[in-house]
Predict the structure.
Amino acid sequence: MIIILTGIALTISFIMALYLFSYSYIEAIRISNSDDKVEAGTFIFMSCMAFVFSGFTYVFM
């Protein structure tokens, strides 16, 4: 049972890390193309959470 739950947690954390890195990449492209004042709160939050979920992925391996 523990092995199954660990596998599920690994899969979820890996998918979330990929999603968050992708979203922060797209957000960085959007920010770099902007000529107006930029609010980068979403980018910073998504980047930090991507690294957190990467750490979770490493823990569950």
